[in-house]
Amino acid sequence: MVEKSLPREILFGGETITNKEINQALDNYFSTIDEKDLTPKNQKDLRDWFVKNYKRLIAGEKKRREVKREPIEISTEFQDKALTSALTELKKLTESTVKEGQENLTPELFSRYGAQQEFRKKMTEIQGSENVVVFVTFDLDNFKKINDSFTHEKGDELLKEVAKNLEATLSIAKGDTGIRFSGDEYGMFLTIPQNKLADVKNVLARMVTNIEQSSKRPDGDKQTLSVGFSIVTPERIGEKDLFKNSREAADKAGEISKLIRTKNLLEEKADTKSSDRIISSDETETYFEKTEKEKLSYIRQVMRPMQEVLRDKSEQEIVAMALQCYEKIAEKK
Q1: pLDDT reported for residue 196
Q2: Which of 78, 136, 139, 266 has its CA 20 to 30 A from that of 186?
Q3: What is the fold, at CATH topology level, of the domain defined by 112-281?
Q4: For position 14, what pLDDT does the model report?
Q5: Which sequence spans correspond to the domains of the chain?
Q6: Which of 104-107's residues contact partners 24+ apart within 8 Å by CB, and which partners?
C-alpha cells in the first residue's frame, strides 16, 4: 500500500482548518487504498469515525480550557495537531480493516471492527426505549482438532459453514446481527424487550441448536458450542469501553460454559446439547464453587498441551489424564 503525502497546509498550515480541507485530506488518503480492499461502507464508517474522533479532540481541548479558565478559542496550531492525530489513528484503523477484509472467510458476518460500529448503532436505537441489547459470544468446541487432524482448509470450510448457518438463523426482520470476531469466535447482537428477558435462554437455545445441527465436522463428531451472553441496557449508553466490557462479560460467561463441558467429560456424560449450557454473565461468579471452578479450570488448561502431543487420544482419555495431574498436585498440597 503506497501512501501519498498529505497536503502540507492540512498537516502544518497556520490557517483555520475547514470541513473542505478535512474532506480533502480524507479523499487524498483514501485514494491511496486499493478499492477492492475497502468497500464503500467501510470507507463511510471510517470517515464517520474520523470526524467523531476529531470533534472529540477539539471538545476535549475546549473543556480543558474551561476548567483552567483559559480563552475558549482553539488555536490553529491545536487544530493542526488534532487533525494529524486523528489522521494517524485513521491510518491504523484503516490498515486493520483492510487486513480483516483480506483475511475474511465469512463476508456475510460483521468483522470485529464492523461489530463495534453496529453495537454503537444498536445502543443508539434502544435509547429511550424498553429494549435491551443481548451481547452473545460463542466458539466452536474442540475446533483445534480439525486443524490438527485434518487440514486448515477443512477448518476454514467449517468456519464458513458455521457463518452461513449463523446468518440463516438470525432474524433479519428484527435487525439481529451476526459477527465473526476471529478464528472460531463468533457473536450475535439481539434486540429484545426488557419484559422478555426471561426468554433469552430459550431464544438462544433455538438459534444455537439450529447452528449446531447444520454444521458438520469432517471427523463426524457433533459440533457443539460454548455460549455466553451479557445484557446491555439503555442506561449504560455513554459508559466508557462499553463494547469491550460487554464482550468481556459475555466471554467470561462462555468460559463457564466450557467448564461445564469439561465437567461433563469428567463425568462421562454425553455433551450433545450446547443449549443446556448457555450462560449469562450474571451467573459467572456463582455457577461453580471456588474449589470446583479452580479444579475444572486447571484440567481444561492442562488438556490443551496434551491434545497437541497426544493427537491419537480421545477427549475422554485426555481429560482422564488431566485429572490425574490435578490429583497429584492436590495431594502435594
Answers
A1: 93
A2: 266
A3: Alpha-Beta Plaits (3.30.70)
A4: 36
A5: 19-104, 112-281, 288-332
A6: 104/180, 105/156, 105/159, 105/160, 105/163, 105/180, 106/159, 106/160, 106/163, 106/180
